[in-house]
Each structure stands twice: as structure tokens, then as C-alpha cells.
Design goal:
The protein contains 4 helices and 5 strands, in the order H-H-E-E-H-E-E-E-H. By secondary structure, it is of the alpha+beta class. The chain has one domain.
Length: 133
């Protein structure tokens, strides 16, 4: 998925489903129940609200950390900027005390938009890692 395609996604169940599947490794269909009776024919899913709930969004950052990714959130007057952290290596040894932020991932202009920005940044990191394989 390209940045333009990601940019068009809105916070909500579709984005939460992508994050569940592609970042968290959970098949969204497995957390859904199909109700079929005389009054209803519906699919109900109980996915975490990654794109709307800050607590759920923070679990994504922890999952990224477990996968070896590091994200820095920088705050200024323009908003909340998520950046990929790249560690400095000395003679092939990673130095976690010295790092650089080598790639902007996403920006949220308001705190309420930060969960969605975390989701989009997580997807971007995961998709780029897959391309590098």
C-alpha cells in the first residue's frame, strides 16, 4: 500500500483491520462473529480501536519495538511528528545511546489524531520492511 493509499484511510474499522492483520498478525475475521437470524444478517467484529483509542495505539508501538523498529514522537507547534529511529553503529555494533531519526513517518496536527497517525506509521514501517526482504 502506498503513502497516498494510506493517506486516504480514515480512522475506524477498516484501518483497525489492516493494523490487526499486518502489524499485530491477527486475522480480523477470526475475531468476528456472524449473526444470522430472522431479524439480522450481520458481521460483528471486536477489534481494538487502534486508530481511535490512544491505549490501543500505544500497543502498536510496543509491537513495533518487539519487531526491532523504533519510533520517536516529536512534539512542536505544528503537531505530533512520528519519525523512524536508526541507531548509530560503531564497528558493526549497535549503539542504542546514539541514534538518528532518518525518516519522517507521519504527523498528527492534534492529539486526537495521534492514534490514527501511529497506525499509519506502523503500517508504513511494516510494509517497507516487507519490501526490503
Amino acid at each position: 500500500m502506498t503513502k497516498v493509499e494510506l493517506d486516504k484511510l480514515r480512522a475506524g474499522s477498516k484501518l483497525d483491520g489492516l493494523v490487526s492483520q499486518d502489524v499485530m498478525g491477527v486475522d480480523p475475521i477470526k475475531v468476528c462473529e456472524y449473526f444470522n437470524d430472522s431479524d439480522h444478517d450481520e458481521l460483528h467484529c471486536s477489534l481494538p480501536g487502534y486508530s481511535t483509542d490512544m491505549t490501543s495505539a500505544m500497543t502498536l508501538l510496543d509491537e513495533l519495538r518487539k519487531k526491532g523498529h523504533r519510533v520517536l514522537i516529536n512534539i512542536d507547534d505544528a503537531g505530533f511528528h512520528l519519525r523512524r529511529v536508526a541507531f548509530v553503529h560503531h564497528d558493526g555494533i549497535k549503539d542504542e545511546k546514539n541514534y538518528t531519526c532518518d525518516m519522517p513517518l507521519w504527523t498528527a496536527k492534534k492529539l486526537s489524531e495521534l492514534p490514527k497517525a501511529i497506525c499509519l506509521a506502523a503500517l508504513k514501517l511494516v510494509y517497507e520492511a516487507e519490501q526490503d526482504k
